Amino acid sequence: RNVDIVVGAEARGFILGAAVAYRLGCGFAAARKPGKLPFLTVGAKYALEYGFDALEMHVDALMRGARVLIHDDLLATGGTARAKIDLVEQLGAEVVGLAFVVELSFLGGRDKLYGYDVHSLVQYETE
Question: Is 89 known to be catalytic?
Fold first, then answer.
């Protein structure tokens, strides 16, 4: 996929995403909860079962046209992954894939990621 940079959200996404970036020989960018990053940021909100949350990235975290792999430990409802897609695209970069360790298929998160290449190592079909 010729990935230029891996994006991971706190906290497990930092550990796993950084390891994937190292293995691919590319950079890593962090998406964090609002107010955690110094400097100017862009943000994206997403729905939770009980309300809303948000993620932010530095405005200079990604170069326009960069090829981005979004990585996380878990795909559940897809809200966090969709927020990361929104952040990447706000910055003018291209999402070339999303990679997850575990997918809870019964929650339908993959549906929110329609049109993107999604891969998970382990899928759970039922609760």
Answer: no
